[in-house]
Amino acid sequence: MYSKGAFKTSYIAIAVIVIIVIAAIAIYFTTIPAPAPTPTTPTPTTPTTPPQTSQSPTPTIPIPKTIKVGAVVCLTGTNARYGQYYATAYKLAADEINKDGGIYIKEYGRKIPIELVILDDESDREKTVKLVEYLCTEVKVVALLSGCGTPFIYPQSSVAIREKVPYLTAVISTETLLEGGKRKSPYLFSMLVMIDVLARNMMDLLKENIDKGVLPKPLKIANIWENTPHGLDWRRGIYEKVLEYPGYFEVVVDESVEVGATEFRPLLLKIEAAGANALMVDIRLTEMMSMHRQLVEMGIYGKYPVITYGARGGEKTFRDEFKSKSDYVIWGTFFSDRLPYPQIKSFIERWKKVSDLPVEWYAAVGYENARIMFKAIEAAGSLDRDKIRDALQNIVVEDVMFPGQKISFDEFGMVHYPYLIVQNVPEGQTRIIYPPELSEATFIPIGK
Amino acid sequence: MLVDGLIYSLFLHFIFLSSTYALMTYGMALICGIMRIINVLHAGFIMFGGYFAYTLFIYFGIDPLLSSIILIPIAFILGFSIHRVLLARLASISMQMTLLLLFAIWLIAQNLALLVFTADPRMIASRLPYAFEIYLGGVSISFQRIVLLASFILISFSTYILLNRTMLGKAIRGTSQDEEAASYCGVNTKLIKDIAFGIGTVLASMFGALATVLYPIDPFFGTVFQFKAFVITVLAGMESIIGVIVASMMIGAIESVAGFYLKFGLLDIVTYMLLLVILIIRPQGLFKG
Amino acid sequence: MKSIYRILVIISLVIMVSIPKISGADGIVRYLLWVLLIITLSSGWNIIGGYAGQFSLGHSVFYGIGAYIFVLFFHSFKIHWALSFFIAGVFSVITSIIVGVPTLRLRGGYFAVGTLTLSEVMRVWANNAPEVFKGGVTGVAVTLPEGWSPIYSYYLMLSLTVVSVAISYFVKNSTLGLKLRAIKDDEDAAEGLGINVLRCKVAALMLSSLIVSLAGAAQITFTAYVSPDSVFGVKRSLEMVLACLLGGLGTLYGPIIGGALFEILARILWGFPHLHLLIYGGIIATLIVFEPRGVIGIADRIRHILKSRLFLR
């Protein structure tokens, strides 16, 4: 390449650069969807749409062909498990509405179908920023559906704030919505209750049982958490209650776990040595399964009256594997097929038709996330992002699948409904044990 | 818990951990010795073995131990072909390129697994016939660990014999020490390299199958193990079975102790720093040949 | 430089500078930001990986350090962005010396593994040390000053890219470049010729890390987010390497072509959310097996074919 021939090669290299630039521009213009609204005159509407009122716009205002709603989820990479659920759930919700023609938008006096644009961020936090920005600025989505989990929602939310796009997240850590105790942006919402509430609810439940004499006082807690904002919030919730109920709880071990850990024996030995009798853990599914296997191996299962993996414990893969050794583990959730709500049964049936994945709460969360957003768009009567934001702030959605069946957002963009605490019982079943108004059984300590 | 029991428990953990780590490193050490590069496809083979054993267990009820035996010819053919078709030409030109090619293949393997098995972790450990606990001197361990330890001893022994007491092993060792000299001695180095890669693949896949006895499998399964295998391979100085065992024991000792006395979350850094230090001070490893 | 080169370079620069002036080009500007970023990164990596032949698989260390230092000074200490930029550069050069001197003694595969380990160590450390790396595992969402538009980032990135390519050009045609080539071909022979191998490698690393960390600092201006998982770690390192490889290792235009192709490829793959990594891996594997010299290598082959078939000069 350093002979005179190199010169010629560089010619070709330059030619290649030019071709690439042209190709890039060409591809670029073919990958972005047609910008909305399209400047065409409206075609006659189908007979099912209501007649135009006198307030409706004159026929020269362009009507968008679709309502673009975007989401960036982790379809591949380490977080792929959740992305698959969310994507399927979003599609399910959108397809159900599009079957009837779409969402009725008052401003245009007709139903417009939803166009879901779902992109894969490969579980990469830099890509997630890039893709959300693309959705907001080039695809020009009118709203964003949630990403998968706090590590991705947090960076996405800063883009949503900047671009002023209403973003309904399914985030359970407060850092995303609040800064210094104040709401970061009127465009951010979360439809899930924060995880520190779960930690607190669990501690309340435990305190009740300590009072009843079912659990020893003080309850010695081993608090294990994953090193993510999720884990940190969980930890905070626990500590708050430890301080609130002096004498009831004692945190004897407080350690973090990195993603990918496989051997937990030294940690478990540490926990044993500290004399713990309650294991409160917040880690990912794979690590949780390794850890549980090892604590069964060490004979810890059955010894401690309380074992919880935070919001996990009911997964089919966990239950199938451990069978009776996963019984009596308690966990928190918003979604349980034990709640006597008809919308849950109906959802499970519809889900089974479109996916082989077992119905876990991510499915319900994804579905409701989309449904609430679509309802807000309808309530806004317009595709204007600010109007949708306002509609979302004021909306009240009934017959959601979560406890209380109602969702509305407070001044921080957060929601309030109780976390359910569920306990695994034999034969792969579960029982709701908290809150009292929805519970069907009482807490049973492990080993009884 | 008594302090005695604690130390004994940690000691048992150390034994099991070291044997697991050594087993996972054999494949990489062998390939490293032959190809002089780190085989990033190692994780892919482990994952392959893992899913293979899982599928056989779920659909046919075949025990992972048996699956690992079944794997031997399958993995060998797989590794042999990959090397012959894709790697052989490249390895002589540039080892960095080979590294990247292996990485690309791993990417493909991972995503195929993702498509077929989804990202859900798959576990069969607790459903195996030997998933019961026994008490060994006052400490509860599961019988699976003993099974794994026995497999480790068996495999180590066989590999040692293969490498040190057969003509094939001699040829492999000769090729990895000095390829030119080996070819002068009449060794078909091309074929030997293909074979060695095949054997390395077998070892990695067998580890994967055996790992299902204890751990859940997901598409990223091998990644964590692979990094530790790097460390141990470098420490051991390649192609020495004894070296690998001793190096694994070192890492095992550090992890058992550090995991208990230090912050559990920082374990990985300890291992990595060790690698860096070794690389800087004595890159040939602690054991030569 | 031959005059036709000069003209072409000037024309392309003029085009690049005037793109933001076209109305409605907002999307193209944003797209080009990423293209320029990867071009800069791979040009920077090329200096140590392509010219010197030292495959650093941990270059994300410098990328991340640039990003974090910039965030520290710009976001936390509220220092003017240009100064923060400068400090990020200085910091990375110092780091490269600290990192380089011990690790560059290692040969080939060991150096790759060593740098890989280093980048993972940085990632785990940053995740666990929020006192040192602001934001810890969550990361920091940087607030950009009022009125900042991506066009400013564009000009920043464009200048950085031009500078990087210029540095790459000057290194290639300088004595250092010659020495690096010698080292790449045969390190022992180079030593025998009297070249101070370590010093040359470290010099290359210094330049390389400077470019990469300035790029890391610059990207903060348009992503406005930093976290250990998004700047450190294997994935970022590999992207630089692959983009360079795609275009042509060790050449001047390789990283540019490779970077542009890389981004186009990424864009196209967005359309295949489930299969994209499969396709990506397939493309890399095919490229390495059939033409490890990248696009430049393909161009070279075409030239040979033309020459032999059509009897051109």
Report on the architecture of this protein:
The complex is a heterotrimer of chains A (448), B (289) and C (313). Chain A is built from 12 helices and 18 strands. Chain A is an alpha/beta fold and 448 residues long. Chain A folds into 2 domains: 67-193 and 348-408, 3-Layer(aba) Sandwich (Rossmann fold); 195-333 and 419-434, Response regulator (Rossmann fold, 3-Layer(aba) Sandwich), CATH 3.40.50.2300. In chain A, helix 6 (229-244) links the parallel strand 10 (219-226) and strand 11. Chain A is 40% helix and 18% strand. Residues 1-6 and 32-58 of chain A have low confidence and may be disordered. Chain A has helices at 5-31, 80-99, 125-139, 150-163, 195-211, 229-244, 265-273, 285-297, 316-322, 342-354, 361-380, 385-394, and strands spanning 67-73, 103-105, 110-112, 114-120, 143-144, 167-169, 178-179, 182-183, 188-190, 219-226, 249-257, 278-282, 306-308, 330-333, 396-398, 406-408, 420-425, 429-434. The mean pLDDT of chain B is 84. Chain B is mainly alpha-helical. In chain B, helix 2 packs across helix 9 (221-236) and helix 5 (143-165) crosses helix 6 (167-177). Chain B has a two-stranded antiparallel sheet with strand order 1-2. The longest helix of chain B has 33 residues, at 3-35. Chain B has a single domain (3-281), classed as ABC transporter involved in vitamin B12 uptake, BtuC. Chain B has helices at residues 3-35, 42-60, 64-93, 95-117, 143-165, 167-177, 179-184, 189-211, 221-236, 241-261, 267-281, and strands at residues 133-136, 139-142. By secondary structure, chain C is mainly α. Chain C has one domain (3-310): Orthogonal Bundle (ABC transporter involved in vitamin B12 uptake, BtuC). In chain C, strands 1-2 form a two-stranded antiparallel sheet. In chain C, helix 2 packs antiparallel against helix 9 (197-223) and helix 7 (175-185) packs across helix 9. Chain C is globular and about 60 Å long. The model of chain C has no long low-confidence stretch (mean pLDDT 86). Chains in contact: A-B, A-C, B-C. Chains A and C meet through helix 1, strand 4, helix 3 and helix 4 of A and helix 1, helix 2, helix 5, helix 10 and helix 12 of C.
